[in-house]
């Protein structure tokens, strides 16, 4: 297949099993009006002051809008270069159209040197079928808008495999789903006896029916082997991942041709059976042991109303913003400016939200900051958990950026931006998928108490937030900006854990573990937790004072050294410490150091601050629960070569942004042994001193769930972050110019200042005038908090800097308790029409995604779609 050239040849590719069906047939949220621009969004309070704010340039990373996508879709179907939907027997189709992000070299010329706007191209993915083989094929279409110069070309330059396609093990996903259901139906006597229920092939929505989920044990050049497990329905609480039933069957699909598919072994209570017949025979034995079952119930509900705390009925403290936002947002260009920071927003169906051209005081710090891939890798003592892993961009972490809940996901004063994407010939919109807000921490940014004075500053920061719900997990991703020029990327996870079956005989009078389990803890009669690693990769293309950067590892090490001034009291050496500076000369992976003894600095060797120190940004573990982790498993059997970036915490590489724009590809999931993007090939030992550098860093952690993870994992126990902190980058602390707080000075004031004392008093007054200058600017704005200078003087040394509240404010009810009556709803037809529900098509999770709950619906165009 290496020599196959897809362009101009009728090749194919339908998808494999149900999770792939999800990716291509499951379309999320709301269809957009054809003439409506992307990212038209709902807003919160007081946005009129934003109306005249404009980005300094057109956003070169803006997603393909509906008009562009519709024109491209028509162009593809009319082009002889690709075979889409031509003829009654054609199974080829286009499933994805999105922006092919422009090369960094072109964008920098445009933004920095008044160059031309970069040419606009689209990335399209088609499903193409050739005989019994299925392929997912990537093309590039451009330049846009469509003209006589527009071309359709194989998209190969971003992929170091040299290919623009992956092979899919299944050509007819609906045949696979029906086959899986038929296996359960044919074994209904077994499932009724052991599990007390059956699958319902004729009515998959039956709330009492079993559902089925699977994981691949092997994917290699179109050959797939996977284990399927039966689960309880959990129809009332979406708790299916907590209801494994302990019965497994092995499926073998050696080719995409359904005639070659076969059922393999069955597994129950630690025993492998050659087939269902062998299992039936074993069940007849009086020594055959039946196991406890997992039943749904109130224990899986996320809320408990049986226990009453009177304080629960009292509204809690909330963040308010009575005078409107202090940041500026250009919605047309998705451009934000706040306290010296500025940046563009961009979204993608696989990798969700990214930030581009992040600047501080008009100087670029980071060219690109965004998600690359999200890995979850499990381990266990039974067929499903023992090799279970997910690469969640495969399911679409961007298309699953669902609507945030105002007032809970984000403060009541947050503003929102929609996320739109084009799939299968239609544009879909997830409303309010991104929120932006400023927040004041419960802890100060700065404080100091001296003999007669105290000074304290508020820690106020800007947050850009999104949540991607992939199957059982919700990933909250924050990009946080601080007044001192620091940037933090924070990941939190919540949702239902993926439980493992606990084999407990039904005859046991006092169920308990006989031995300590090495993979998790028992949390229900027939349920164990399942240990797993979350490793979520992000890209940071840093440009510190330009693109000539060097990584320096500064170690804090113990030292023994003699000092002349220690004699004779210290006759030998003094035990102390010092810094040792190591230049990282070649591409490599790094781990967070034990005891935090190493500092990782991206330096600008040719630029110094006014003190002569090399300007730099430091990369360090942030405010999460411990340092982020890398993958524990060495050379994962399941992952193959698809996620080698997960083997270290932090990677520093020479940047090739035009040919190596990412560390992964969402279709790596389908060819893990021969991925489209092989990260190992990117780490090829190039010299990286005074070069354009790119960092790939991981967030996440080692998750060993306990009973406190039932029913949902809590975010404050699963948070991790990385911070980029200025390190000799500025001449001093730049937050002094923008922060707000108070200085209280109780030094005795002399009645009369003479001589030198008078001079010092004059200097002190001059300094005080400087401190109060910013306060004066606030006082001049009548629509903001009032500052009373006369009152300050009466307060005997209490001096506020920055705006403050001096009188009661009126806060709208919507800011305190936003109206959620129309959450996940849209108008039916014209404005003023009735509201109808817009459901979130949450996918991901188990491959096969509980196929017993899937429905096949007829779209208006006659095509079937998946409704999980």
From TrEMBL:
Reported cofactor(s): Cu cation
Domain of life, source organism: Eukaryota
Protein name according to UniProt: Amine oxidase
Changes after translation: Topaquinone (TPQ) is generated by copper-dependent autoxidation of a specific tyrosyl residue.
Pfam families named among the record's database cross-references: Cu_amine_oxid, Cu_amine_oxidN2, DUF1965
A single MF term (Gene Ontology): primary methylamine oxidase activity
Biased composition (Acidic residues): 786-796
Keyword entries, A-Z: Copper, Membrane, Metal-binding, Oxidoreductase, TPQ, Transmembrane, Transmembrane helix
Bilayer-crossing regions: 6-27
Cofactor binding note from Swiss-Prot or TrEMBL: Contains 1 topaquinone per subunit.
Enzyme Commission numbers on file: 1.4.3.-
Species assigned in the record: Vermiconidia calcicola
